[in-house]
Write a structure and sequence with these properties.
The chain is of the alpha/beta class. The chain has 5 helices and 7 strands, in the order E-E-H-E-E-H-E-H-E-H-E-H. It has a 7-stranded mixed sheet with strand order 1-3-4-2-5-6-7, with helices on both faces.
Amino acid sequence: MSRRIVEASFVLSAPTLEHCPEIDRPEIAIAGRSNVGKSSLINTLCNRRGLAKTSSTPGKTRAINYFDIRMEPGELRFYLVDLPGYGYAKVSKAEQKEWGRSMHEFLARRAAIEAIIHLIDIRHDPSVQDVQMREWILQSGLPPVTVFTKADKLSRNQLNQQLAKSKKLLLFGDHERWVVTSAQSRTGLEELSESIAEIIDSAFQRQSD
């Protein structure tokens, strides 16, 4: 039986690393460009409309949003951590630099993070910021789970071509986790849930060893 999220609730918005919750369970973070579809993916994955809210001003939300998640079968509890979107053109260079510093610090110091779900809009080539985010993830030693969003916007042929190009530009390894998704059609969400469950399972197994 496949794993699925059965409970999901908003916990808090942390403006800085110091405001994040006390570490008491594994965490999986979600990163991506502004308007890549993070909120839609979170809401559909958790079966909770409006759980993750989209900012009326893209690029301005700088809080780290925590969601308490429970998966079944079994009793897997973890935090899903929604990181601020990056790459919004109207944000100043100073703000972009501050975002980069904050995210680099978060990935380096937040010990509970088990993996980063990195969202890429499959309709476009990965941006410079996408590549930089991926480099930070790899440098942190955390396993990336690359999620290509908005697959329903392309034909199957376009999708395959863009997927091959994106994986080449991002220098994908042979055994990396990746999934093609559409929040609208729910494509790939069961596969993503299984990947999340495997990561959390491994985290609890390490704790019990």
